[in-house]
Amino acid sequence: MSQVTIISGLERRRTWSDDEKLALVEASMEPGANVADLARRADCRPSQIYRWRRELLDPTPSAPTGFAPVIVEKEVPPALPSSSAPVAPVGTEPSCAAIIIKLDGAVVRVAADAPPALLAAAIKACKR
């Protein structure tokens, strides 16, 4: 004989009490227990029983996901030493030898005779 469950009203999901969850998890932990058969008899999915197992055996929640706090300072010190050298427009190529770094849509042009500290700072800024 088959069983038919009629769902009426707005509630479509079955709510399980903590005692019901605990009883199913304990039954699934017994030697020789078959979680698929147990889930079929309880009218739920095996993955649900495995989830309850995880939740009951490790009650500490995982690290929360979300946004990291941001602190905005009033004045930001310059990352590079200020220079009075003019900056070439983005669309133009340098007329002398230069190092061009293209990364994620940003283009950084450094003159070939630039100090090594300036080049290191430009590369470090691109890695951020």
Automatic annotation (TrEMBL):
Alphabetical list of InterPro entries matching this protein: Transposase_8, Trp_repressor/repl_initiator
GO biological process, one term: DNA transposition
One term of GO molecular function: sequence-specific DNA binding
Pfam family, one: HTH_Tnp_1
Alphabetical list of SUPFAM superfamilies matching this protein: TrpR-like
PANTHER family the record matches: TRANSPOSASE INSC FOR INSERTION ELEMENT IS2A-RELATED (PTHR37936)
This protein's name: Transposase
Organism expressing this protein natively: Tardibacter chloracetimidivorans
